[in-house]
Structure formats: C-alpha cells, structure tokens
Amino acid sequence: MKSFEYTITEEVGIHARPAGLLSKEAAKFKECTIKVWKGEKSAEPKRLIQLMALGVKHGDTIKVTVEGADEEAVFEHMKKYFEENL
C-alpha cells in the first residue's frame, strides 16, 4: 500500500463538481482500491456520495491510500491529479 497526504487548495473543497470529477478519475482504476481519509473516516472516491459525506473543505489535509495491482502507477497518477485539480 502507498499513501500520500494532501492539503486541499480547491476553494469549495471536495464538493459536488470536484467530487464528481475525482470519482470519474478514480473509476479508471478498477484493479486498485483507492481511499480518501479525513481523520478516522474514509471513503472510496469511486463512490460519489460516500466521498462527499466526508465533508472535505478548503484547507483540510487528507490522506490518500492506493492498494492493489499496479499501485505504483496509480499512486503517481492520483497524486498528480490531486496536485493539479484539488
């Protein structure tokens, strides 16, 4: 398993539109389990409602974990996605 921490810079946090785009991006990787952690709570970004229920706001620091087939490539892709979009 690989993980990284990221502080959300998107003004609206991970709300409707950003959450939908993140969910769509994560769905590309069916062989990997990707989780977003806010404190002790986690959500799979492939599950939009679960992701939005975390209530991630601008300035929150989250942890993202990636586990499964080709996790190194998926980890790098997701890290880049967060840095460029959230």
Topology:
Elements: E1 2-7, H1 16-26, E2 32-38, E3 41-43, H2 48-53, E4 61-68, H3 71-85
Antiparallel strand pairs: 1-4, 2-3, 2-4
Describe this structure in words.
The chain has 86 residues and is an alpha+beta fold. The protein has a single domain (2-85), classed as HPr-like (Histidine-containing Protein, Chain: A, 2-Layer Sandwich), CATH 3.30.1340.10. The chain has helices at 16-26, 48-53, 71-85, and strands spanning 2-7, 32-38, 41-43, 61-68. Strands 1-4-2-3 form a 4-stranded antiparallel sheet. It starts with a strand and ends with a helix.
Q: Which labels suit this protein?
A:
globular; 4 strands; 86 residues; Histidine-containing Protein, Chain: A; alpha+beta; 4-stranded antiparallel sheet; 3 helices
Overall average pLDDT = 93
| Low-confidence runs of at least 5 consecutive residues | none
CATH fourth-tier homologous superfamily: HPr-like
CATH-derived architecture: 2-Layer Sandwich
Beta strands, count? 4
Distance between the termini: 22 Å
Please write the string of helix (H) and strand (E) elements.
Answer: EHEEHEH
- Main sheet, how many strands, which sense, barrel? 4 strands, antiparallel
